[in-house]
Amino acid sequence: MKIIIINGPNLNLLGKREPEIYGAHSFDDYFKVLQNKFSAIDISYFQSNIEGEIIDKLHEVGFTYDGVILNAAAYTHTSVGIGDAVKATETPVVEVHISNVHAREEFRHQSFIAANAKGVIVGFGLKSYDLAIESFL
Ligand code: DQA
């Protein structure tokens, strides 16, 4: 089984960025934890701060991989283009958020991805990614 985690803007700063919201671990460190925990699965990881690169990656993997775990971060709430890419591709996408976006500012309640996602997991910290992987098993 081939799964990719795609993280959007500012998630490269996990561990340093607003740790009271996003926690103290870098994603690179957490990715190793995920790879060990789910060693039977081929999990890869891509992060970009650039909307078009996220769209390109969805096109690249979206017809061959078994699953995409997408935390589009701020683009979740703004990007028709990423939403359209999720709709245009065949691989099931699980939308993930570390924080509970529904308990935060109103602009974070909107998602351009959710309507075309297989499911949405929000608010469990980095464990949201574990739950997303488990949803494909
Ligand atoms: C986030 C929530 C978004 O609203 C925010 O812009 C992020 C991270 C999360 O994982 O909680 O950058 O996607």
Core attributes:
single chain, 137 residues, alpha/beta, Rossmann fold, five-stranded parallel β-sheet, 5 helices, 5 strands, 19% strand, binds 1,3,4-trihydroxy-5-OXO-cyclohexanecarboxylic acid
What do these coordinates show?
With 137 residues, the chain is an alpha/beta fold. It has a single domain (2-135), classed as Dehydroquinase, class II (Rossmann fold), CATH 3.40.50.9100. It has helices at 19-22, 27-37, 51-61, 80-88, 127-135, and strands at 2-7, 42-47, 67-71, 93-97, 119-122. A five-stranded parallel β-sheet has the order 2-1-3-4-5, with helices on both faces. α3 packs parallel to α4 (80-88). The longest helix has 11 residues, at 27-37. The radius of gyration is 14 Å and the shape is globular. The site of 1,3,4-trihydroxy-5-OXO-cyclohexanecarboxylic acid has 10 residues, from loops.
What is the overall shape?
globular
- Overall number of strands: 5
CATH architecture: 3-Layer(aba) Sandwich
Overall radius of gyration: 14 Å
Could you state the CATH homologous superfamily? Answer: Dehydroquinase, class II
Number of domains: 1
CATH fold label: Rossmann fold
H/E series, N to C?
EHHEHEHEEH
Major sheet strand order: 2-1-3-4-5
Instruction: Tell me the fraction of residues in β-strands, as a range.
Output: 15-25%
> Which regions have little confidence, pLDDT < 50, spanning 5+ residues?
none
Number of helices: 5
Ligand set = 1,3,4-trihydroxy-5-OXO-cyclohexanecarboxylic acid
Instruction: Return the CATH class.
Output: Alpha Beta
